[in-house]
Design a protein that fits this description.
about 25% helix; alpha+beta; five-stranded mixed β-sheet; six-stranded mixed β-sheet; about 280 residues; Ribosomal Protein S5, domain 2; 2 domains; lpxc deacetylase, domain 1
């Protein structure tokens, strides 16, 4: 398969689960889509099955997760599905859901990677939309920042600094390819802290979370079984891949981040989007 041509799935595949924050049951189907469709989320449970494209102009919230909204079509916590599609270079896909939130699955993107592999990927008769970043972009907030530099490929270098005694400083660097995404990134689960969970519950968030689908830390210990010592920083990279996919193109650039978040990722994506347009 050529790196230059757009792709989609060979067939539809489905998965049943619950959403991380709303805790609602959801039936999600990944469908093949025509060239230049991009990634679209369809709400099958709403009248007229409204859709929202996975593009920056439709992002309405980045608190703890990424929310997309267009008219009646609202979906949130979409970054893990988007990360899997981007990581495996799927350019066009209809994500149909009968609930506002994709399944949390195991808190990583591994289930979605498996779905994509089960469906198979096929090439389309259209040239892939690629954007090579032309200049440095930087977003900084206190001691957090994320930047992107021109680079022939897609590389992410992330430093996580956390005061928890079991976490401290974690560093991860990878040239993101389909192979490295599947082997080094996709399995890393989202992280939560018990003191945050109480606050999240009051905000109506995290209702579908558990020690199975998130790596949960209390003040001193880890309540979950880690898959790898630096699972936190690898998941941060997984999130960046999903958040930057909202530019609507495969990117070429070197992302360098320290303690970045969905908010900062989104602000960087907006700068890249402005450069593109």
């Amino acid at each position: 398969m050529s790196d230059m041509m757009q792709t989609t799935l060979c067939k539809s595949v489905s998965y049943d689960g619950i959403g991380l924050h709303a805790g609602l049951p959801v039936h999600m189907i990944l469908h093949p889509a025509a060239a230049n469709t991009g990634i679209q989320f369809v709400r099958a449970d709403l009248a007229g099955t409204p859709a929202v494209p996975a593009l920056l102009p439709y992002v309405t919230n980045t608190m703890r997760a990424t929310t997309l909204e267009k008219g009646e079509a609202k979906v949130f916590t979409v970054e893990h599905v988007l990360s899997a599609l981007q990581g495996l270079c799927v350019d066009n896909c209809i994500v149909e859901m009968n609930s506002p939130e994709p399944p949390v699955a195991d808190g990583s993107s591994a289930v979605f990677v498996d779905m994509i592999k089960e469906a198979g990927i096929r090439e389309l008769d259209a040239v892939r939309n690629v954007h090579a970043v032309q200049e440095q972009h930087l977003i900084q907030e206190d001691d957090k920042f994320i930047a992107i530099l021109p680079y022939d490929g897609f590389r992410i270098t992330f430093t996580s600094i956390n005061p928890h005694p079991l976490l401290g400083v974690q560093f991860f660097d990878a040239v993101v390819t389909e192979a490295s995404y599947v082997k080094e990134i996709a399995f890393a689960r989202t992280i939560a802290f018990t003191e945050e969970l109480e606050m999240m519950r009051k905000l109506g968030l995290g209702k579908g979370g558990s020690v199975e689908n998130a790596v949960v830390y209390d003040r001193e210990t880890c309540l979950s079984q880690l898959r790898i010592d630096d699972e936190l920083v690898r998941h941060k990279v997984l999130d960046i891949i999903g958040d930057l996919s909202l530019t609507g193109k495969q990117l070429k650039g070197h992302v360098i981040a320290v303690k970045s978040s969905h908010k900062l990722n989104n602000l960087l994506a907006r700068q890249i989007y402005e450069e593109m347009n």
